[in-house]
Amino acid sequence: MSARKPYVRPMDGWWRRNPFFLRYMVRESSAVLLAIYAVILLTGVFRLSQGEAAYAAWFAALTCPFSILFHWVALLTVCYHAYTWWKVMPKTMPMLVIGGRRISEVALSGIGWAATLAMSVAVYALARWA
Amino acid sequence: MEVFNADIVIVGAGGAGLRAAIAIAQTDPTLNVALVSKVYPMRSHTVAAEGGAAGVVRDDDSLEYHFNDTVGGGDWLCDQNVVEYFVAHCAEELTQLEHWGCPWSRKPDGHINVRSFGGMKIDRTWFAADKSGFHMLHTLFQTSIKYPSIKRFDEYFCVDLIVEDGRCQGVLAIEVASGKFTFLRANAVILGTGGAGRVFRENTNGGIVTGDGMAMAYRHGAPLRDMEFMQYHPTCMPGTGLLFTEACRGEGGFLLNKDGYRFLQDYGLGPAEDQPRNKFMELGPRDRLSQSIWHEERKGRTITTPHGEAVYLDLRHLGEKKLRERLPLIYELAEEYMGIDPAHACIPVRPGIHYTMGGIYANLEAETPLPGLYAAGECASNGIHGANRLGSNSLVDIIVFGKMAGLKAAQFSRSAQNSNASVLEKQAKAAQDRALSLVTRTGGKERHSVLRREMSKSMESGCGIYRTGPEMQATCDKIGELRERYKNLNVEDKSSVWNSDWLGALEVGYLLDVAEVVAYSALNRKESRGAHQRLDGYEQRDDVNYLKHTLAYYNGDNPPRIEYQDVIITKSKPGTRAYGAAGVAADEQRTKEAGNV
Amino acid sequence: MSDGTRTIEIETLRYRPEQDTEPHYQTFSVPFADDWSVLQGLQYIKDDLDSSLSFRWSCRMAICGSCGFMINGQPRLGCQTFLRNYYPNKVRVGPLEHFPIERDLVVGIEDFIGKLEGIKPYIVPKESRTLAQGEYLQTPAQRDQYEQFSSCINCLLCYAACPQYGLNPEFTGPAVLALLHRYNADSRDQGWEARKEVVNAEEGVWGCMLVGYCSEVCPKGVDPAHAINQNKVNSTLDYFGVKKFLLPKGAAE
User: Fold this and answer.
1) Do residues A75 and A103 both lie within one domain?
2) Following CA atoms B497, B503, B505, B508 in sequence, which dihedral angle do they give, to the nearest 10 degrees?
3) Hey, is the C-beta of B501 within 8 angstroms of any chain C C-beta?
4) Using one digit for the tens of pLDDT, what is the confidence trace for C61-118?
5) CB neighbours (10 Å) of residue C197?
6) Could you report the per-residue pLDDT of B265-305, keeping only the tens digit for each?
7) Which residue of A has its CA nearest to B176?
8) Which residues in chain A touch residue B178, judged by CB atoms under 8 angstroms apart?
9) How many CB atoms lie within 10 A of CB B435?
10) Type and span of the H or E element at A52
């Protein structure tokens, strides 16, 4: 009989042991807030289909202080989510070489951010002035 | 004790061992190969080789040039029949590695690129960035996975060969994880166990390079040949001894003394030119460069570092872009370990032990004098490298002769029969008891780490770049004393599971035997040739008395018995070993004498 | 040998299965020179203080991959981590996470070896060629497509970094999947077809949650996260049968 007795360490609390993992958990958790916000928006679309009164009621509910606070938190969280999203996006793309030079991950993330900002400005302008 | 039956056992899973295993598996998949290694294959020291592997490919190159460079580089101690076979098979083996996926660096047209290397007349060194050994080893290891007839025994530490009826019939190994023994019985054994650089203090070698196979073969009567020829690589990191590849110089790096002067031109390697020129200056052979640095130190023209005297390796003029592309590993080494940016500052370097030219005597067919025992790679002395190895000849040596050993061992094993099984197992049991006694004995006072330190310090002082009789004798005496004290060893760790204290003690045992061979071989060679240089009246090469290989035979507790063996000369009579402008003149003279235009 | 000018405390995990039921930490005072690595600190302990301390090491220059440890909670190579950067604080050295501890700082890596063997980690040639015909042609640009992924030294820091591997040990893991991609991306190899079962499996690329710590700790810049996640796109395309869009170009049938 061999005297080997391999010791397997438990994984409990693994994400608390390293700041990198903590940031990862925050990143993943941001999706929860994103999901809640999406449900709120979808509810609004549904209320719109039910007529002006229903939509107005939904909109009024959104103006309460708790809702305002939630939306600020959600906005910051979604921005952080977008930041982490664009940061890892280059990992999903193949190695891009144009004119003999590799396109850096920073450049790819930058393109993503540029598109995000452009879209955000466009949507805001549409909502504000159209 | 477990017993495993194989047709061939290979000890060592570096370049030579893996190549041998693949050769056997390819030619005869019915043969069972047991590939035994004390570390996982990708840890083998082949992995650390940087510069490249030589093979004639250019139109302006020829096998004859490679042959002449090798024989001259070896200071005519090479067995020329073996060198002839060698140079004829280098490119083919390197191409085979390419077919297996080795990522050789390429020219823009997609063909293999070659670079300059020390002592080579024409560029012929194939390279994979500056991690050629790493890529070769991983290619070989990953390719070996294709062959089900190769069974690997990873982290099995060999403690002895089993020799019966005058034939080698297997090995006894410890399964490191459990401390249990396995007797691997076979019809033929191939040793690919590497060199013994760790007998010295400052060396480029990994911790595992402890001469295991050399010592095991030696103890069973196979002679160790030309062990006095230990190569000092000129450009190592002070302190750790880590290697800065010769390719730094191949790409155009300079060696400067403390005055910023390219001092090599004072030692017959000049004249100095801006561009690297093969066999000139920094592209001279390693022994001559190390010796030049030694002389600079005597003249007080070196830089003092906390780890000893050094010269500067100047890579600044290559520029960051070229450095990052062609020498990325070197860049990392300088930055991370020394805090130096080689694109902007010079790197202090000093000579360190790098390669063991000598080893277990093996002929062209990789056969040792012990029937059934084969040896290839750094652990073998097959006559390629002579008194000094040229850079990039070793990485290709291991695959050319790894393949040879595999094929010849396979051939032998088909016709060989094992002796009576119980007789063999009894021998294996006796070997087991001997190995265990290191741990079980009580009352010992010595510690192997202490013996190891004293050994390596003594070897450095007595068997350094330049040697004298009295200093070598002092080292011989010291090693003898250490071998005696080894009998009084105490291994503190008595456990079975991963007992590295015990393995370390076994390794020190191997190192001491090999160190004694190096010291006595050096003491008895009363001439200077290649990497063996003396200052005590024997400063010249003596072809009359010493155009011979040194053979050292095991003699128990006594010093080794030293004999001599003629060098095999075929085409190239010993000539002047010259480099730089003197080398060009010597070449022209030889050509004239040979009657060629 | 040490200069003896400064002393640092190295706290290392000990586990001797024949006498310990559980691992525990032991602290040693180690005099060190300015350029000493953590590995050199451990060697001092073994040579001069406690010869029973067991750990793997060899090359000392970050190419053999033997000396991976958890150093102050981060997966690092012992030979490439320097004591001066921790002084005067204590350095805590442990065995790589997510592997079973065999003894002290030595972990069992048979699972990794088995996985490496299972991906056809060798060239499956796209076209045959005899040795007499010479080398396959491969331009520097083609070589660049896979060289980074071929630089893995099998040090297993990425496995210690990957919480997925810790939580789901069937996951093939970063280094093996990076090596798989190395072969797929080699212009001489058939590419996708040969290894798609491994890639497409749940334990293949789909086991990765893009934590990304693997690429962060890799000492050789292999970027296994990139190797794995670009193949999620390939795997998806394969699932929907659009094979001709599989990347990298030229490596797919």
Assistant:
1) no
2) -170
3) yes
4) 999 999 999 999 999 999 999 999 999 999 999 999 999 999 999 999 999 999 999 9
5) 11
6) 999 898 999 888 888 999 888 889 999 999 999 999 999 99
7) A4
8) 2-4
9) 20
10) helix A52-61
The CATH class that applies to domain B2-49+134-228+356-426 reads alpha beta
User: Tokens standing for A118?
Assistant: 């452009």
Same domain for A100 and A74 = no
CA dihedral A26, A29, A33, A36 (to 10 degrees): 180
List A residues 28-87 in contact with C (Cβ-Cβ < 8 A): 28
B157 in reach of chain C (CB within 8 A): no
C6-107 homologous superfamily: Beta-grasp domain (3.10.20.30)
Read off the pLDDT of residues C231-241 as tens digits, 9 standing for 90 and up: 999 999 999 98
**What pLDDT sits at residue B274?**
87
Q: How confident is the model at residue B595 (pLDDT cuts 50, 70, 90)?
A: low
- 8 Å CB contact of A21 and C211: yes
Q: Say yes or no: A18 and A75 in one domain.
A: yes
pLDDT value, residue C249: 54
Quote the strand ranges of chain C, DSSP E. Answer: 6-14, 24-32, 68-71, 74-77, 91-94, 101-103, 106-107
**Cα torsion angle, B157, B159, B165, B168, sign:** positive
Residue A85 is assigned to a structural domain of this protein = no
Chain B residues in contact with chain A using a Cβ-Cβ cutoff of 8 Å: 177-180, 495-497
CATH superfamily entry for domain C110-245: Alpha-helical ferredoxin (1.10.1060.10)
Q: What is the CATH number that goes with domain B232-354?
A: 3.90.700.10
CA distance B499 to B183: 19
Low-confidence ranges of chain A (pLDDT < 70): none
Question: Is A117 a member of any domain?
Answer: yes
Residue from B111, B154, B336 to probe the interface with C (highest C Cβ count within 10 Å):
B336
Residue ranges of chain B assigned to CATH 3.90.700.10? 232-354
Backbone angles phi, psi at C216, to 5 degrees: -65, -40
Q: CA of A3, closest CA in chain B: separation in Å?
A: 6
Question: Which chain B residues in 52-81 lie under 8 Å from chain C, judged by CB atoms?
Answer: none
Closest-CA residue to C23 (of C112, C100, C98): C100
**Of the candidates B99, B145, B206, which has its C-beta nearest C121's C-beta?**
B145
Residue of C176, C174, C178, C177 whose CA lies nearest to C166: C174
Domain count, chain A: 2
Distances (CA, A) of B193 to B153, B164, B179, C153: 14, 22, 21, 21
Nearest CB to C17; choose among A4, A20, A21: A4
A-chain residues within 8 Å CB-CB of B177?
2, 4
**Inter-chain CB proximity A3 and B177 less than 8 Å:** no
State how far residue B177 is from chain A, nearest Cα, in angstroms: 7
Per CB-CB distance under 8 Å, the chain B contacts of C65 are: 42-43
Supply the residues of B annotated as catalytic.
Answer: 233, 249
Phi, psi of B417 (to 5 degrees): -125, 140
> Which of C62, C64, C143 lies at the smallest CB-CB distance from B43?
C64
Residue B333 has pLDDT above 50, yes or no: yes
**Residue A116 domain-assigned (yes or no):** yes
Q: What is the pLDDT of residues B395-447, one digit of tens each?
A: 999 999 999 999 999 999 999 888 899 999 999 999 999 999 999 998 999 99
Q: A27: domain range?
A: 14-79
Fill in the amino acid letter for B11.
V
Set of chain C residues whose Cβ sits within 8 Å of the Cβ of B131: 63, 151
Chain B's closest residue to A2, CA to CA, is B178
Average pLDDT, chain B: 95
Burial label for C216, CB within 10 Å (0-12, 13-18, 19+), is middle
Indicate the residue among A53, A79, A105 that finishes a domain.
A79
